[in-house]
Amino acid sequence: MMMIHSQVLKDGVLDPETTVVSIFPSPMQYAGPTEVQWHAKARINAGANFYIVGRDPAGMSHPVEKRDLYDADHGKKVLGMAPGLERLNILPFRVCIFLSSSLLILLL
């Protein structure tokens, strides 16, 4: 991932003078929609303006049925409705592909 961030800065997609790339160490707790909101709010408190949300990687299993408990895009849906997150620009995407050192594709 750091190669992608470095290339985005090198290509001028984001201004290196005003962009801070950092790791936000916050492990998944598999808490579903509540956790998605918590992660977004924590980033607001840390000063983030944008939050990129993709497929929910937690894949929490249903306790009885053989399926995931939540839809893969549930996090994006919840963040779009959650109160208190209006200051955060939610950037949902379906797929992120890194093809080479000079190409980053986000399919929104």
Please tell me about this protein's structure:
This protein is 28% helix and 18% strand. With 108 residues, the chain is an alpha+beta fold. It has a domain at 33-95. A hairpin with a 2-residue loop joins strand 3 (95-100) and strand 4 (103-107). Helix 2 crosses helix 3 (74-81). The relative contact order is 0.18.
Summarize this entry quickly:
The protein is of the alpha+beta class and 108 residues long.
Strand and helix layout:
Elements: H1 2-10, H2 33-45, E1 50-53, H3 74-81, E2 89-92, E3 95-100, E4 103-107
Parallel strand pairs: 1-2
Antiparallel strand pairs: 3-4
Helix pairs in contact: 2-3
Question: What keywords describe this structure?
Answer:
alpha+beta, 108 residues, globular, two-stranded antiparallel sheet, two-stranded parallel sheet, single chain
* Beta-strand residue fraction: 15-25%
Helix fraction by DSSP (H/I, runs of at least 4)? 25-40%
Q: Number of helical segments?
A: 3
The number of distinct β-strands equals: 4
Q: Any idea what the shape is? A: globular
- Structural class, please? alpha+beta
- Report the radius of gyration as a whole number of Å: 15 Å
Low-confidence stretches: none
Strand order of the largest sheet: 1-2
Give the end-to-end Cα distance, rounded to a whole number of Å: 19 Å
